[in-house]
Design goal:
By secondary structure, this protein is an all-alpha fold. The chain has one domain (1-8, 15-86, 102-204). Helix content is 73%, strand content 2%. The chain contains eight helices and two strands. The chain has helices at 2-11, 16-26, 34-54, 64-83, 106-114, 117-133, 139-167, 173-204, and strands at residues 87-88, 97-98. Strands 1-2 form a two-stranded antiparallel sheet. Helix 3 (34-54) packs parallel to helix 5 (106-114). GO terms for molecular function: amino acid transmembrane transporter activity.
């Protein structure tokens, strides 16, 4: 139980993945972003399986700063996509429309989760400490990993659904533009913290 409580508290906290999902919901792309949620879940499944069976042999703590650097760059790219997105409100009671190229995809979700140090920091304590302490081994690791991955993919889905509920109450394009700008800036802040982790590593070496 403590494994799922820990994973839930971290996965459902604000971060780049959940910010992207929230923005998708606000701008009427909840249904078109289902692939994004699946991508996030698949990325977590890969990480849990890899670390669950190999420990830290695949990615050591020393590699995290470099993952932060790459993840920060990718997050900045997504921040630009969100910040420059335009939303058109077709009419009262209709969902806002966003350009098709702005729709979040499976690979958007997979890459941002794999390159998100927060995701890796969720996985490492669970696979290296909690699973052995709970005597979870063999095929049980795969089962627990699948359940955690489903929960992880549900986190952006919840954020996006909340955004969709709120977005249906908004009928002016100006507010969607403001939301896009705010979410874009929030992603820039997330990227900054990733770059900061890399900077601290460089300073320490």
């Amino acid at each position: 139980m403590d494994i799922f409580l820990y994973a839930f508290s971290v996965m459902y906290s604000p971060g780049p993945v959940n910010f992207m999902a929230l923005n998708a919901g606000l701008t009427g792309r909840f249904r078109r972003s289902l692939g994004f949620f699946v991508g996030v879940g698949c990325a977590l499944l890969v990480l849990f399986i890899l670390f669950g069976y190999t420990g830290e042999a695949i990615i050591s703590q020393g590699a995290l700063p470099y993952i932060s650097l790459v993840g920060g760059l990718y997050t900045l790219y997504l921040a630009y996509q969100v910040y420059t997105a335009t939303t058109v409100v077709p009419g009262e009671g209709s969902e806002p429309a966003v350009a098709a190229q702005k729709t979040l995809t499976f690979w958007n979700g997979f890459l941002i989760q794999v390159l998100n140090p927060k995701g890796i920091m969720v996985v490492l304590p669970i696979t290296s400490i909690m699973l052995p302490a709970a005597h979870i081994t063999g095929s049980s690791i795969a089962i627990v990993s699948a359940l955690l991955a489903i929960a992880g993919g549900g986190a952006p889905g919840v954020y996006s659904l909340l955004g969709a509920i709120l977005g249906r109450r908004i009928t002016r394009e100006f507010y969607f533009t403001v939301f896009n700008r705010l979410m874009g800036l929030a992603l820039v802040v997330c990227a900054f913290f990733m770059f900061h982790a890399f900077y601290l590593h460089v300073q320490a070496t």
